[in-house]
Write a structure and sequence with these properties.
The chain has about 200 residues and is mostly helical. The chain is built from 8 helices and 3 strands; from the N terminus they run H-H-E-H-H-E-H-H-H-H-E. Helix 6 packs antiparallel against helix 7.
Length: about 200
């Protein structure tokens, strides 16, 4: 029994469930070489009474940047994504055009063009109910954006952060839910290098 204990090996990833030589194991290793390995999630529970837009304050944005910088310096870290990264990406999609420069208006932004494309597709396919719903939602979005002066559309402004975080129904935007699963939780996702040993 004592000798047998020396032969035990620990495994903590999906490779432990796959047989050596299986194509799926070969594909898994190739995938991890390209995109990294396991994702580690750090969940942050937000204090009761604090909203998401308050939580991603300029002070906390600096903390998220420090966390990201610290983690990126560590060996074995492929990528780090924080709530700040999510807000920055949303902000750029809404304010910048396909060339990466500030769009003349929100309808010319990457996000605006994407929504217009979805509306056009729904109309072309004869999905009148979907087209009507998209048109109404787009109108509400434009009205919400219009309430925030262009010069104030920065991550320092709590109203702009609120616009970035919530859809027109007041729910966390679907695209942000990996980082804000609900109104009281935020996550940091750290992806490890691929095919690491324990």
């Amino acid at each position: 029994m004592g000798f047998g204990l020396t032969k035990l090996e620990f495994a903590t990833d999906q490779d432990a469930y796959l047989n050596q030589g299986d194509q799926v194991l070969t594909d898994s290793k190739a995938y991890q070489d390209l995109f990294g390995g396991q994702a580690m999630l750090a969940a942050i529970r937000i204090d009761e009474g604090t909203t998401l837009e308050e939580f991603v304050s300029p002070e906390n944005q600096k903390i998220f940047q420090d966390v990201e910088d610290t983690l990126r310096k560590r060996d074995g870290i492929e990528a780090v994504a924080t709530p700040l990264n999510t807000l920055v990406l949303s902000d750029r999609l809404i304010q910048n055009g396909p060339d990466g420069k500030k769009a003349a208006d929100i309808t010319q932004s990457i996000a605006g063009q994407s929504l217009l494309g979805a509306l056009t597709e729904a109309t072309d396919e004869g999905a009148t109910d979907e087209a009507a719903a998209r048109t109404e939602d787009s109108g509400e979005t434009l009205a919400r954006v219009g309430e925030i002066p262009e010069a104030e559309r920065t991550l320092d402004n709590i109203e702009w952060r609120r616009f970035l975080l919530y859809d027109n129904a007041g729910e966390v935007r679907e695209s942000l839910r990996p980082f804000f699963p609900n109104a009281q939780t935020a996550q940091i996702v750290t992806r490890l290098d691929g095919n690491m040993s324990i």
